[in-house]
C-alpha cells in the first residue's frame, strides 16, 4: 500500500491514552505518533501499550503537532464539530496525519483551521481517544484494500 498514516495527539489527558494509541498504531501500521502536550509523559512501560510499540514506531514529543508533519502530508482533524465529514463518507489521503484531541475537548480553531479535512466518527456517544484512533486507522486500511 502506498503512502502512510501519522497520528497526531493534541494535549492527550494521560499517558494511558498515549499507550492505547501506540497499541492502535502498531495494530494498523501507523508510521509514527506525534504528541503535542504541555506536560511530558513517561512513555516506557505503559500498561496500555501491550505491544511496546514505542520501541518500533517513532513517538515524537513536540510543542505543536504541526511541527512534525512530514513533507506533502495532509492534515486531517478528527473531531465532533459541525461540518465534519462522517468517516464512512471520507476518502483518506495517501499521506495523512490524523490529528486527535483530548477526550473531553475539541481540537479548537487553532488546529482545525490548519486541517485540510475535518472528519467525525458518527457515534451515539463520545468514544475514548484510543478507540477513535483504532476506528479511523481501520477505516483507512479497509477502504484502501489492505485490511
What does this structure look like?
The structure is a single chain. By secondary structure, the chain is an alpha/beta fold. The chain has a single domain, classed as SPOUT methyltransferase, trefoil knot domain (Alpha/beta knot), CATH 3.40.1280. Helix content is 22%, strand content 22%. It has a seven-stranded parallel sheet, with helices on one face. Helix 1 links the parallel strand 1 and strand 2. Helix 1 packs parallel to helix 3. It is globular and about 35 Å long.
In the CATH scheme, the class would be Alpha Beta
What's the mean pLDDT score?
89
The percent range for helix content is 10-25%
**Rough outline:** globular
CATH fold label: Alpha/beta knot
Largest sheet composition: 7 strands, parallel
Order of helices and strands: EHEEEEEHEH
* Individual helix count: 3
Strand order of the largest sheet: 3-2-1-6-4-7-5
Q: Into how many domains do the coordinates divide?
A: 1
Task: Report the CATH superfamily.
Answer: SPOUT methyltransferase, trefoil knot domain
Question: How are the SSEs placed, and which strands pair?
Answer:
Elements: E1 4-10, H1 15-28, E2 32-36, E3 59-62, E4 74-78, E5 85-86, E6 95-100, H2 109-112, E7 117-120, H3 129-143
Parallel strand pairs: 1-2, 1-6, 2-3, 4-6, 4-7, 5-7
Helix pairs in contact: 1-3
Task: Write a compact overview of the structure shown.
By secondary structure, the chain is of the alpha/beta class. The chain contains three helices and seven strands; from the N terminus they run E-H-E-E-E-E-E-H-E-H.
Amino acid at each position: 500500500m502506498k503512502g502512510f498514516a501519522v497520528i497526531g495527539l493534541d494535549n492527550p489527558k494521560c499517558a494511558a491514552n498515549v499507550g492505547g494509541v501506540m497499541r492502535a498504531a502498531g495494530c494498523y501500521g501507523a508510521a509514527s505518533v506525534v504528541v503535542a502536550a504541555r506536560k511530558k509523559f513517561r512513555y516506557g512501560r505503559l500498561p496500555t501499550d501491550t505491544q511496546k510499540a514505542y520501541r518500533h514506531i517513532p513517538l515524537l514529543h513536540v510543542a505543536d503537532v504541526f511541527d512534525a508533519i512530514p513533507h506533502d502530508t495532509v492534515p486531517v482533524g478528527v473531531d465532533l464539530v459541525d461540518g465534519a465529514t462522517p468517516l464512512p463518507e471520507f476518502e483518506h489521503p495517501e499521506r495523512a496525519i490524523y490529528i486527535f484531541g483530548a477526550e473531553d475537548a475539541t481540537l479548537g480553531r487553532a488546529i482545525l483551521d490548519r486541517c485540510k479535512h475535518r472528519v467525525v466518527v458518527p457515534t451515539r456517544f463520545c468514544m475514548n481517544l484510543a478507540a477513535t484512533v483504532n476506528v479511523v486507522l481501520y477505516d483507512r486500511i479497509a477502504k484502501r484494500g489492505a485490511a
